[in-house]
Amino acid sequence: MKKSFLRAKYKELRLDLSVETIEDLSLQIANQLLELPIWDYSFYHLFLSIAEQKEVNTEPILHILQGKDKNVVLPKTDAPTNKLVNYLLTDTTVIKKNRWNIPEPQDGIEIDTGKIEVVFIPLLAFDQWGHRVGYGKGFYDQFLAGCRADVLKIGLSFFEAEEEIEDIYQSDVPLDYCVTPKYTYSFNKS
């Protein structure tokens, strides 16, 4: 299926989810993550959820990371360049919503992408090959292209994999894993 069709389909499916269902499924996703071999790293990049878009709630993941004393890196969008600027989450980090209702750090200690070892990625849909459909702005593809080659890329989804996304671009960066409430998909080629 084409990205535009999948984007519309999964936005609609998410809008049908209740707040209670989102909370329950998000907790199941966080519990599934605990089974992955990803907890020996130091720097974890985590998106903060857009409640209005009914995204996976990443608060349980944030609590896990903080409980394991990990460095949490939060993105801030730079709309003119379609780039993400990444800041270390500290006790003094001020979070505010931007014009797209994305909660973001206002400033702080900027972290070089080369330090980031694990990235949790928002998405609308993904396929059995690790390709994903986002909102179409390319923020994450551009960000991931600048990360180190061995960075772990983990998608989070309420829904299971599609068979195949047909219109993949050369600049699309595939996932290493995608975690849903029931399954963990591994796309590692090794």
Describe this structure in words.
Its EC number is 6.3.3.2. This protein has a single domain, classed as Rossmann fold (3-Layer(aba) Sandwich), CATH 3.40.50.10420. By secondary structure, the chain is an alpha/beta fold. The radius of gyration is 15 Å and the shape is globular. The model has no long low-confidence stretch (mean pLDDT 94). 23% of the residues lie in helices and 23% in strands. The chain has helices spanning 3-15, 19-33, 59-67, 139-145; strands at residues 43-45, 71-78, 83-88, 95-97, 103-105, 118-122, 125-126, 132-133, 152-156, 177-179, 184-186.
Short description:
23% of the residues lie in helices and 23% in strands.
